[in-house]
C-alpha cells in the first residue's frame, strides 16, 4: 500500500474516531437540556419539589456531558486544517460560514446562559433562571441546526458554483445551501434521536433504582416521563427515518443500494434482505434471509417496482457495503426495540404496574445505552455511505486529504486514542457514579460557582485585608 493511501486511511480513521466519540455527548446534552427545561417548567407550574430535585440531579450530569462535548468538538475543527486542508480550501467558502454561524448563535447563547443555569438558582429570580435554562436548550438545538446543515450540504450539495480556483462558493443567496434537499429530514431524524437517547438513558437510571427497591416520587416520576417519551416518540422516529430513507433514495441512491445489500438490479421487485453476509468480491449476500419484493414496497410503495443495484454503478464509486449493511440494521433493530419498550410501558401503565413490573425495568436498564449505539450506527451509515465522496459527486475523499506522511497521521491518531480514553473515560465514570446515586429530597444544587476568571477581586482583597 502506498504511503499516501495509508495516510488517507489513517486520516479517515482519526476523524471517524473523534467524531464518534464526540457525538455521544451532544446526543445526550441536546435531549437533556430540553428535559431540564421541562422539569423546571413543571416545578414552576405545579410547585412540586420532586421536579426541582430531578432538575438539580440531572443538571449536574448535564454540566459534565456538555463540557466533554465542547472539548471533544474543538478537536475536530483543527482536523479540518491538519488532515483535510484541501477540503478546507475547496469547501471552506460554504462550510466555513455555516460553522461560524453555529459559534455566533448557538455557542454564544449557550455560553452566555449556562453559568446562570448552573449556579444562578439562588441568585436570580425564578423567571430569569427558567429563561436561562430554555436559552441553553434552544442553543443546543441551534447548534444541531447549523452542524447538520453543513453536513447535509456535503451529502446533497446545491446552491453553489465553482470558481476559477476550484472552490465551492455560494451562487446567490444562502437559503438553498442551508436548506439543502436532505437537511430537513436529517435535522428531524437526528434531533428526535437525541431526545430518545436521553429518554432511554434516563429510564435506564430510573430502572436501576427501581430494581434496587427505590420507590421515591423522584425515581417514579423519572421513569414515567422517560417511558412516555419512548412510547410516543419512538413511532414518530420510525416514520421520520422512513421519510429520510426515501429522501436518500432520491438523492443518494447508491447509499441505499449498499444499505439494502442490493448488488444486483431487480426489475420486477426487490427483496428486503433481513440478514446475511455481504461479499463485495462475489457481489452477493451469502446466507441471505430475505422477504421477496418487500424492499420495493417500502421504498417505492409498489411490490413490483424495479430497483437498481450496485451493478449499475462503477466499482470506484461504490461505498463499502459490509459496514453500511450492518450499521443500518443495528440502527433499525434498536429503533424497533425502543418501540417495543414504549408499547410494553403503555401496557404496564394501563394495568397500574409501571413501577412494579421488574422485567420491564430490566429491559429498560438494558436499553439504557442503546440510544448511543443507535446514533453512532446511524452516523456510520450516513458518512460511510457517502464514500468515496467527501462532497457527494463533486469532491472525492482521497482528493480532499492533506499532503501528510502516514507516520505523522498515525502518531496523532494514537495520541488521540490515549487521551480520549483516559480523559473522557474519567468523565464518563464520574457521570455513572452520579447516576448510581438516586435523586434525594431537597437535592442540593451545585455550590461551587467560579468567583472570578483570574486575578484578585475587590471582594477578596477586602476579606484578606489588602
TrEMBL record:
<dbReference type="GO" id="GO:0005886">
    <property type="term" value="C:plasma membrane"/>
</dbReference>
<dbReference type="GO" id="GO:0046872">
    <property type="term" value="F:metal ion binding"/>
</dbReference>
<keyword id="KW-0479">Metal-binding</keyword>
<keyword id="KW-0249">Electron transport</keyword>
<dbReference type="InterPro" id="IPR002585">
    <property type="entry name" value="Cyt-d_ubiquinol_oxidase_su_1"/>
</dbReference>
<comment type="similarity">
    <text>Belongs to the cytochrome ubiquinol oxidase subunit 1 family.</text>
</comment>
<keyword id="KW-0472">Membrane</keyword>
<dbReference type="GO" id="GO:0009055">
    <property type="term" value="F:electron transfer activity"/>
</dbReference>
<dbReference type="GO" id="GO:0016682">
    <property type="term" value="F:oxidoreductase activity, acting on diphenols and related substances as donors, oxygen as acceptor"/>
</dbReference>
<feature type="transmembrane region" description="Helical">
    <location>
        <begin position="192"/>
        <end position="211"/>
    </location>
</feature>
<feature type="transmembrane region" description="Helical">
    <location>
        <begin position="404"/>
        <end position="432"/>
    </location>
</feature>
<feature type="transmembrane region" description="Helical">
    <location>
        <begin position="57"/>
        <end position="78"/>
    </location>
</feature>
<feature type="transmembrane region" description="Helical">
    <location>
        <begin position="98"/>
        <end position="120"/>
    </location>
</feature>
<dbReference type="GO" id="GO:0070069">
    <property type="term" value="C:cytochrome complex"/>
</dbReference>
<keyword id="KW-0812">Transmembrane</keyword>
<feature type="transmembrane region" description="Helical">
    <location>
        <begin position="359"/>
        <end position="380"/>
    </location>
</feature>
<keyword id="KW-0813">Transport</keyword>
<keyword id="KW-0349">Heme</keyword>
<dbReference type="GO" id="GO:0020037">
    <property type="term" value="F:heme binding"/>
</dbReference>
<dbReference type="Pfam" id="PF01654">
    <property type="entry name" value="Cyt_bd_oxida_I"/>
</dbReference>
<keyword id="KW-1003">Cell membrane</keyword>
<feature type="transmembrane region" description="Helical">
    <location>
        <begin position="223"/>
        <end position="240"/>
    </location>
</feature>
<feature type="transmembrane region" description="Helical">
    <location>
        <begin position="127"/>
        <end position="148"/>
    </location>
</feature>
<protein>
    <submittedName>
        <fullName>Cytochrome bd-I ubiquinol oxidase subunit 1 apoprotein</fullName>
    </submittedName>
</protein>
<feature type="region of interest" description="Disordered">
    <location>
        <begin position="441"/>
        <end position="466"/>
    </location>
</feature>
<keyword id="KW-0408">Iron</keyword>
<feature type="transmembrane region" description="Helical">
    <location>
        <begin position="323"/>
        <end position="347"/>
    </location>
</feature>
<dbReference type="GO" id="GO:0019646">
    <property type="term" value="P:aerobic electron transport chain"/>
</dbReference>
<feature type="transmembrane region" description="Helical">
    <location>
        <begin position="23"/>
        <end position="45"/>
    </location>
</feature>
<keyword id="KW-1133">Transmembrane helix</keyword>
Amino acid at each position: 500500500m502506498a504511503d499516501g493511501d495509508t495516510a488517507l486511511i489513517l486520516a479517515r480513521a482519526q476523524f471517524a474516531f473523534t467524531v464518534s466519540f464526540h457525538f455521544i455527548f451532544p446526543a445526550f446534552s441536546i435531549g437533556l437540556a430540553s428535559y431540564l427545561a421541562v422539569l423546571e417548567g413543571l416545578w414552576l407550574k405545579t410547585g412540586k419539589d420532586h421536579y426541582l430535585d430531578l432538575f438539580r440531579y440531572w443538571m449536574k450530569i448535564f454540566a459534565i456531558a456538555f463540557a466533554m462535548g465542547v472539548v471533544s468538538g474543538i478537536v475536530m475543527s483543527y482536523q479540518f486544517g491538519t488532515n483535510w486542508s484541501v477540503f478546507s480550501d475547496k469547501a471552506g467558502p460554504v462550510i466555513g460560514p455555516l460553522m461560524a454561524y453555529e459559534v455566533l448563535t448557538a455557542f454564544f447563547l449557550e455560553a452566555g446562559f449556562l453559568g446562570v443555569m448552573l449556579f444562578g438558582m439562588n441568585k436570580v429570580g425564578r423567571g430569569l433562571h427558567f429563561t436561562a435554562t430554555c436559552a441553553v436548550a434552544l442553543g443546543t438545538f441551534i447548534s444541531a441546526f447549523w452542524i447538520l446543515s453543513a453536513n447535509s450540504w456535503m451529502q446533497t450539495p446545491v446552491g453553489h458554483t465553482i470558481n476559477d480556483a476550484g472552490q465551492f462558493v455560494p451562487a446567490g443567496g444562502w437559503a438553498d445551501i442551508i436548506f439543502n434537499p436532505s437537511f430537513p429530514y436529517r435535522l428531524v431524524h437526528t434531533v428526535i434521536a437525541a431526545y430518545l437517547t436521553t429518554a432511554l438513558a434516563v429510564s435506564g437510571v430510573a430502572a436501576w433504582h427501581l430494581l434496587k427497591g427505590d420507590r421515591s416520587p423522584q425515581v417514579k416520576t423519572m421513569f414515567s416521563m422517560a417511558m412516555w417519551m419512548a412510547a410516543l416518540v419512538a413511532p414518530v422516529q420510525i416514520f421520520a427515518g422512513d421519510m429520510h430513507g426515501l429522501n436518500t433514495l432520491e438523492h443518494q441512491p447508491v447509499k441505499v443500494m449498499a444499505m439494502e445489500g442490493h448488488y444486483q438490479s431487480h426489475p420486477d421487485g426487490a427483496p428486503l434482505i433481513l440478514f446475511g453476509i455481504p461479499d463485495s468480491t462475489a457481489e452477493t449476500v451469502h446466507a441471505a434471509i430475505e422477504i421477496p419484493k418487500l424492499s420495493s414496497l417500502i421504498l417505492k410503495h409498489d411490490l413490483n417496482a424495479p430497483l437498481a443495484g450496485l451493478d449499475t454503478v462503477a466499482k470506484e464509486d461504490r461505498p463499502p457495503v459490509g459496514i453500511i449493511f450492518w450499521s443500518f440494521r443495528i440502527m433499525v433493530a434498536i429503533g424497533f426495540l425502543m418501540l417495543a419498550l414504549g408499547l410494553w410501558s403503555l401496557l404496564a401503565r394501563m394495568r397500574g404496574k409501571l413501577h412494579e413490573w421488574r422485567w420491564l425495568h430490566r429491559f429498560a436498564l438494558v436499553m439504557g445505552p442503546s440510544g448511543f449505539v443507535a446514533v453512532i450506527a446511524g452516523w456510520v451509515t450516513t458518512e460511510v455511505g457517502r464514500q468515496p465522496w467527501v462532497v457527494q459527486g463533486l469532491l472525492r475523499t482521497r482528493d480532499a486529504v492533506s499532503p501528510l506522511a502516514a507516520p505523522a497521521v498515525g502518531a496523532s491518531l494514537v495520541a488521540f486514542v490515549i487521551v480520549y480514553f483516559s480523559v473522557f473515560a474519567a468523565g464518563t465514570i464520574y457521570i455513572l457514579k452520579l447516576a448510581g446515586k438516586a435523586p434525594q429530597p431537597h437535592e442540593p444544587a451545585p455550590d461551587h460557582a467560579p468567583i472570578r476568571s483570574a486575578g484578585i477581586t475587590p471582594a477578596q482583597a477586602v476579606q484578606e485585608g489588602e
